[in-house]
Specification:
Two copies of one chain form a homodimer. Chain A is built from 13 helices and twelve strands. The first copy, chain A, is an alpha/beta fold. Chain A folds into three domains: 52 residues, 434 Repressor (Amino-terminal Domain); 134 residues, Rossmann fold; 136 residues, Response regulator (Rossmann fold, 3-Layer(aba) Sandwich), CATH 3.40.50.2300. Chains A and B meet through helix 4, helix 5, strand 2, helix 11 and helix 12 of A and helix 4, helix 5, strand 2, helix 11 and helix 12 of B. Strand 2 of chain A pairs antiparallel with strand 2 of chain B. Chain A binds a DNA duplex through helix 2 and helix 4.
DNA sequence: TTGAAAGCGCTAACAT
DNA sequence: ATGTTAGCGCTTTCAA
């Protein structure tokens, strides 16, 4: 009955070759402990000989699972965000594989309705669970998914819902900017300015609060030292001009590398050395921070670790859906480069 | 027979509600033309009412296809590459969706054997086809996949095999650097230096050849004007120092933005204005090129278009596997920014 | 134009 | 410890 090797071998093929039933082969693959050692060896040999791999579709149909995790790609945005996501996605794929899952990428048909993509995959049972990444305030995804009893883990805490019952993983942004600020205080700075985003960004407020906290704990004044602008190089540049003229800071902490690069532009224009004359620290440890002269110190998010935690939560969720998982909060680190400057003591 | 709404509705549920057979519902979904208008309307209403979506696993099992395209994520590499892939992947996901496919991400278990990941997915019939991205010389993937009759499209021409029979899409790197060089010639430069990669990089040689061609066509000397280094900021920086001292170029074309930033460091150190004093053009239009002061002119690859072409080739491949597809070659564009400098006429 | 029968490859439940 | 039976939800083939 050996087919022309045209189609892949099935359980039946292996069973026939090994002289056992199909179920025994299935057990050999999924519950080897159930077989006697010699039977297992015989079946295993037949499997190897035929190069047998269980058919995914058949297994999925029977077990009502796809071993697939859905991840929605947000619309392209110019900026540092893509690189951030790249590190996360990479680690997510690796961690998922170790847990026996693959990652399925999707976008929404309609940019006005990000839910459409989720709905389709869910109703066609194409994925077992989702990883939700853009948990900005008012994003309806979490509530929508919970309502549909769709398993998901959020990367980003549930801002909108303090007693959300879904698992989430997030990075403590405030700790990141506090770290950056403390670093500059340790270097001997006392007039440390903040350039951040507009008030409507919760993440921006979060990052800002870390600067504020570190300054207050060191009993340093923050009056006139903060600025809120758009996340663009030009905005960071003009904010730095104003702050330098009016508040005379010796150091800047910025909500993004983009803003920090803007500060560096202003310093260069005024003949000031970033680092030696004025210290600058950015946020996200982007490609730009690593490349720009003389190296931009920057807060680095543990994205790889975040992905590992997300998969961990996912496994727990799929194993025992009833258990209410706690949120996981991770702490960023600081990459110290040239713009930190020398000690000022 | 209405289940407790616990599990998703099936063909049978729709059939019962519409008062037709299961097969008729299947036809309504897949071959609407076969139904009489009123029957179709009735079935369609039942589908909407129940929120029916065909079960993916069942359909896959029956049709022996998964509507999934496999994409291997290369190991993380610090550098500009990740941002490049991000644009490509994004567009690939969008184009795939329009063609009815999803993108499945995977990595190889073993970093020494990139084939392992392909083999698993192939034998378990988890994907219909692959998109292969790293087609460097000597990469065995293409040959290996062809041997196994696995459908795939390569992003990257088959360097190793001029008469390869698989479809491929690539970007004409030489045209890109020729474009950059011609741009500088048009601005009035005649001593234009090249900083590229070591000889073992085929892509590097390709990018270099465009500079060479444009220079020769303009009957300009290239003697002493080329350098081959590692792809790092420090390398670009020291290469620029040597070239400035020994060959007195007025402009640089670089094989990457990373190298171009290195050149800009050297210029800054010598009190020279990138653009006004010495022109610089990079390659890849990375985040850095867009951010760095005063804006780095750079060759931009049409990655979005490349992904569209890849999916187009994939569709053709899966529809009629026998047809030998031709390769598609796309041409880059040039993003002009501050480092291009003024006209010198 | 619609329906009935069969089976894709696998595993859960049960029987031996 | 191994085998038998049944069926997951769908589509292909053929009959009405």
């Amino acid at each position: 009955m050996s087919r022309f090797q045209m189609s892949a071998p099935t359980l039946a093929d292996v069973a026939e070759l090994a002289g056992v039933s199909r179920q025994t082969v299935s057990n050999a693959v999924n519950n080897p402990d159930l077989l006697r050692a010699d039977t297992l060896a015989r079946v295993q040999q037949a499997i190897d000989q035929l190069g047998y791999k269980p058919n995914r579709a058949a297994r999925n149909l029977r077990t009502r699972s796809s071993q697939l995790i859905g991840l929605r790609m947000a619309p392209v945005q110019e900026g540092t965000a893509s690189a951030v996501m790249d590190r996360f996605v990479h680690s997510l794929v690796e961690s998922s594989r170790e847990a026996g899952y693959h990652v399925l990428l999707f976008t929404s048909d309609d940019h006005t309705d990000p839910l459409a993509g989720y709905d389709d995959l869910l109703r066609s049972t194409a994925v077992d669970a989702f990883v939700v990444t853009d948990t900005y305030l008012g994003n309806p995804q979490a509530a929508w998914l919970r309502e549909r009893r769709a398993p998901f883990v959020a990367f980003g805490r549930p801002w909108h819902d303090p007693d959300a019952r879904h698992p989430w993983v997030d990075i403590d942004a405030a700790a990141g900017s506090a770290l950056a600020t403390q670093h500059l205080i340790d270097k001997g700075h006392s007039r440390i300015a903040w350039i951040g985003w507009k008030k409507d960004s919760l993440l921006g407020e979060e990052r800002r609060s870390g600067w504020l906290r570190a300054m207050h704990e060191a009993e340093l004044s923050t009056t006139g030292l903060a600025s809120r602008v758009e996340d663009a190089v030009a905005s960071g540049r003009s904010a730095a001009q104003v702050l330098l003229d009016e508040a005379k800071p010796t150091a800047f902490v910025c909500a993004s590398d983009t803003l920090a690069v803007g500060v560096m532009h202003t310093l260069a224009e005024r003949g000031l050395q970033a680092g030696d004359d004025i210290a600058v620290v950015g946020f996200d440890d982007s490609q730009v921070a690593q490349t720009v002269w003389p190296g931009l110190s920057s807060v680095r998010q543990p994205l790889e670790q975040a992905a590992v935690e997300v998969v961990k939560a996912l496994e727990g969720l799929l194993a025992t859906p009833s258990v209410v998982a706690k949120g996981v909060m991770l702490t960023p680190t600081l990459e110290i480069r040239g713009t930190s400057g020398p000690d000022r003591h």
